[in-house]
Structures are given as structure tokens and as C-alpha cells.
Amino acid sequence: MSGPVKLIVNADDFGISEAVNNGIVAAHDRGIVTSTSLMATGDAFEHAVALARARPRLAVGVHLVLTEQRPLAGAVAVPSLVGPGGTFAPHLEQLLAPVLRGRISLAHVRAELDAQIRRVRDAGIAIGHLDGHQHVHVLPGIARVVADLAAAHKISAVRYPAERVRGYMLRDPRWLRRLAEQCALNAFCAASPLKRLRRSGDFVGFYFGGRLDEPNLRTVLAGLPAQGTVELMCHPGDEGMQPSGHWHYAWAAERDALTSRRIRDFVAARGVQLVSS
């Protein structure tokens, strides 16, 4: 007889700010978060490392970054990845076209992502997985680099963010664009070498990305399969994280949902086993 469904609850963007770091560790200490993904380029990287060291049960991976931030390798070393100001493209939308047109040097991608992995490793973090900020790690060409780096650094797991379309995603026409983006992401995943690497059997959280409040989280949890391993992506933070630019996430609401007793009781009642890998 097959066992219960195993759920990895992974919080993204660890290290981007102290407000996000605080929300993530609160959701781990008092809630259902079991894993997180650390941004080597983040302004609060050292703060995140200190918090992780104090929490040996919190699994940590690397959140590979090719948008928004500045490269660790330096702008001169990776010129095809940066604009005139020496920063990455502001969003995946601005990175996608150059990638598809072959204007991004994969040698530059390799140098930068390798530098990010090395920074996390050199901080004494045991790296459990790789994933990507805005899922850049599944883009054509970049996915091959990520697969090669996973092998080179002996990192056993890589996120495969293909979320199946479920009935609740068809109820609100306001989110059809999000659903279309999800389908495009699924197509990139299917064409990538990442599907052959060790990964969870299912993935959820993209559709409700940034708005995983308690009702939405309960909807996702109610739709989990009866068995297998599932990764749930989330983005907790605290009240210090304010909307800016294109980010209008409900960080504190996600923290509250992930620490809710009602949610913890619901997970227990369904027999879901919380795991970190």
C-alpha cells in the first residue's frame, strides 16, 4: 500500500531582504515551511545565512538569479546578462526574448550561476536543491547549464515547476493571463533536460504565486494528490516588505496562512507528511 502524500513547502527569495527572511523563518518555526531557496545576490544574504545556521531542520537550496539583481561575477565578466547600469534585466519578460534569440551567452550564464552556487556553499550551507528566481532555470539553454552545474556541484535535486491545470484555476477570468503563463512555463519544462533529474513528482504554487493567503492555500492543499511527493512554492515575508515595482505580493498574508493552526490541522487531518526533500 502506498504511503501518504509527501509535501515539501519551499519558501523562495531567502536573502532578498530581512523582512522576507523573517517571514520565512517564522513560517518554518511556527508553521509548515520545510525548505527555502537562498539568493546569493540578495541584500540580506548574510542575515539569511545566520538564520539558516540556527535552524538545522530547515533545508536550503540556491535560488538562481538572472533578473533584477547585480551579478556576483561582475558586469564586465558577464556583459550579455546586464544592461547599461550593470544590473540584470528587470523581469523575466525582458530576459526571455534575448534568450530565445540567442543573444545571451551561455558561458556568461554558467560563470554567473556557478559564482552564486559557490557563494552559498562557501558560507557553509549544505545545498539541497537548485531553483530559479522567476523560474529562469527552465529557459532554453539555461536549463542545460543548470543541469550541468547540479552535476558538477553534486546537488541532487532541481525544481521542475510544471503545475498541472486544476479546476479551481478556471473559475476566475481575471487570472487567465496567469494561467497562460503557467502553460508556457510547463512547455519550457517539458522541453528541458531538468525533467530527467531528481525532482518532486508534482509542483504547485505558481498559479497562486504572491497571493497564497489562507483560503487559497487551503484550496491548493485540498487539491493535492493522494500519494507521491509534491513541492509547494510560497513567498512569506513580514509587514516590513512593501509592494514595489512589479512586486505586489501578499508576503505577510502568506506567512499568516503558513502558520495558521487551521492550516496545520488541515494538513494533519489529510495525513500529509511534511518533508524537506
Features:
eight-stranded parallel beta sheet, 9 helices, globular, TIM Barrel, 277 residues, alpha/beta
Number of domains: 1
Q: Which segments are poorly predicted (pLDDT under 50) over 5 or more consecutive residues?
A: none
CATH architecture: Alpha-Beta Barrel
What's the total count of β strands? Answer: 8
Overview of this protein structure:
This protein has nine helices and eight strands. It has 277 residues and is of the alpha/beta class. Strands 1, 2, 3, 4, 5, 6, 7 and 8 form an eight-stranded parallel sheet that branches. The chain is globular. The two termini are 21 Å apart.
In a nutshell, what does this entry contain?
This protein is of the alpha/beta class. It has a single domain (6-275), classed as Alpha-Beta Barrel (TIM Barrel).
Break the fold down into its secondary structure elements and pairings.
Elements (H helix, E strand, L loop, with lengths): L5 E9 L3 H12 L5 E4 L6 H9 L5 E6 L27 H9 L5 H17 L4 E6 L9 H11 L4 E2 L17 H15 L11 E3 L9 H9 L6 E6 L16 H9 L1 H9 L3 E3 L2
Parallel strand pairs: 1-2, 1-7, 1-8, 2-3, 3-4, 4-5, 6-7
Helix pairs in contact: 1-8, 4-5
